[in-house]
Design goal:
- By secondary structure, the protein is an all-alpha fold.
- The chain contains 15 helices and four strands.
- It has a two-stranded parallel ribbon.
- α1 (15-29) packs antiparallel against α14 and α9 packs across α10 (232-258).
Length: 365
């Protein structure tokens, strides 16, 4: 791969081996596998229905263009977030099912709602999970220049106000996926020689993206315009409202998980060797939040248990709450951080404080 090399130190403490052994023992004792099974199918049906039923209601003229149209678009925003956080995420991590074809199918739900699973897997699985919070490699902490998510990036005057305006850009997160992000990623990953991780050629991916995105725009925008009397500008504005809702919901789940003041950030622009192994690195760069709320956990696909997700990404999120005490106990035994004591609201406040801190020069010793 045409990217800097990051070397992790072998685990000499025994933490990783002990943790994996204990988690495997939990599954063996309870005669469980690490996939989702029936509960995930039921959950997926609900999330897909929340997206496609409102779409069908206004596309086939049931709601009209009045208040119910806007309610439907907002509901679709929640459905979009639900699909992203719950279905495609586990599918693309091969955590949804024991059957590879089912994982692939559920991972492709992101293509159904306008994104691209191959580009997402490179950014998320290959880069973010392998190099969490490492500048130059983890693209989740390397957004547009107007935002500064890690201290290794240049500081500009405008960043002083990012703790205020960042929320506006969070609302546009999925809009960029629909319009430009996947195409930019395709070109970038070709240059970095990362396309080969998909097992496909750049040309094949480009053709697939053209057809899936044309299909998406046809059913989400063209059909409502063709089949109803709703003005075209109303349809477009409704589409934007849907993405504002969905993008914002996903952003406020993902961002507090890794961009807080106590997280470790490394500079990976050059080859580096870290004095930690891969699992311990995840404890240093991830936090849980809102773990006392089962409703939040269910709605956000268990991603409030971000530590457990990063330690065991191929495990269905339905198991995170059960293995969390094992992870916490093991981390404590080995003197490692396990940050999981803040509510969702407190996590957002801490993230805001981090954005504010990153918008100012680092204090001198």
């Amino acid at each position: 791969m045409n990217i800097p090399k990051v070397r992790f130190t072998n685990d000499k403490s025994g933490f990783s081996k002990t943790l994996r052994s204990r988690v495997d023992e939990y599954f063996a004792e309870n005669k469980l596998n690490k996939s989702g099974g029936g509960p995930m199918l039921f959950k997926s049906l609900l999330m897909l229905s929340l997206y496609f039923i409102p779409w069908a209601l206004f596309t086939f003229g049931v709601t009209g263009g009045g208040a119910w149209f806007w309610i439907a678009e907002v509901a679709m925003g929640f459905g979009l977030a639900g699909i992203g956080l719950n279905i495609m995420h586990d599918g693309n991590h091969s955590a949804y099912s024991t059957k590879p074809w089912m994982n692939k199918l559920m991972g492709k739900t992101i293509d159904l709602v306008g994104g691209n699973s191959d580009m997402w897997c490179i950014q998320h699985n290959v880069l973010h999970h392998s190099f969490t919070n490492i500048n130059g490699l983890d693209e989740d902490i390397d957004p547009a220049t107007v935002l500064r998510f890690n201290p290794n990036k240049p500081l500009y005057k405008i960043h002083r106000f990012q703790y205020i305006y960042a929320w506006f850009f969070y609302c546009l997160m999925t809009v960029s996926w629909m319009i430009s992000k996947d195409w930019q990623a395709l070109a970038r990953y070709k240059k970095k020689d990362l396309i080969k991780t998909t097992g496909k050629s750049t040309g094949r991916l480009a053709i697939y993206m053209v057809f899936t995105k044309l299909f998406y725009y046809f059913y989400i925008i063209a059909l409502p315009i063709i089949l109803t009397d709703i003005p075209w500008w109303t349809v477009l504005l409704g589409w934007l409202v849907m993405h504002v809702v969905g993008g914002f919901l996903m952003a406020i789940i993902f961002q507090p998980a890794h961009v807080l003041e106590h997280h470790v950030f490394h500079d990976g622009e050059k080859n580096i060797t870290l004095e930690t192994d891969r699992l311990q690195h995840q404890l240093q760069t991830s936090s849980n939040f809102g773990v006392k709320s089962r409703i939040l956990t269910w709605l956000c696909g268990g991603l409030n248990y971000q530590i457990e997700h990063h330690l065991f990404p191929n495990m269905c999120h339905l198991h995170y709450r059960k293995i969390a005490p094992i992870v916490k106990r093991t981390a404590k035994e080995f003197g490692l951080p396990y940050r999981s004591d803040v509510s969702f609201g407190q996590a957002l406040k801490l993230h805001t404080a981090m954005l504010k801190s990153l918008g100012r020069p680092a204090p001198t010793a």
